[in-house]
Amino acid sequence: MVSLHGHITAGCHWLPKKDGGRLLVSTWLVASLVFMTCYSGILTAMLTLPRVNIPIDSLSDLVAQSRLPWRIEAGSMMFHYFQVL
C-alpha cells in the first residue's frame, strides 16, 4: 500500500494530474492486480490437480453401475417423468 500511495501522490508522466483521475487509475491498478492473482491461482489449481474421471456417460450407464449410489427425489420432475413411463 505504501508504494501505491507513493505512485499516486508523487506523480509520473503517465498519471493524470487531478485527484479523480489518479483515483480511477489506482482503482484500475488494484483491480487488475486482484484479477490477475485470482486468475493465476485458478490456473495453477487446474493444472496441478488431477482431473476426476466420471465413468457415467448416460442414464443407462448410471442405472447399470452399482458403485455410486443414486436416487430420484420424490416430487421432482424426473420422478413424475418416470412414473408416467
Model description:
- The mean pLDDT is 80.
- The relative contact order is 0.06.
- This protein is mostly helical.
- The chain starts with a helix and ends with a helix.
- Helix content is 62%, strand content 0%.
- The radius of gyration is 27 Å and the shape is elongated.
- The chain is built from four helices and no strands.
SSE string, helix = H, strand = E? HHHH
Distance between the termini: 65 Å
Mean pLDDT across all amino acids: 80
**Strand residue content:** under 5%
Overall body shape: elongated
The low-confidence parts are none
Sheet with the most strands, sense and barrel status: none
Q: How much helix, percentage-wise, in residues?
A: 55-70%
What's the count of strands? 0
Rg calculated over all Cα atoms? 27 Å
User: Pairing-aware structural class of the strands and helices?
Assistant: mainly alpha
* Count of helical stretches: 4
Organism: Petrolisthes cinctipes (Flat porcelain crab)
Transmembrane segments: 23-49
Family: Belongs to the glutamate-gated ion channel (TC 1.A.10.1) family.
Protein name: Ionotropic glutamate receptor C-terminal domain-containing protein
What is this structure, in a nutshell?
The protein has helices spanning 2-10, 19-48, 59-64, 77-84. It has four helices and no strands.
Secondary-structure topology with pairs:
Elements (H helix, E strand, L loop, with lengths): L1 H9 L8 H30 L10 H6 L12 H8 L1
GO cellular component, one term: membrane
Protein name: Ionotropic glutamate receptor C-terminal domain-containing protein
Keywords: Membrane, Transmembrane, Transmembrane helix
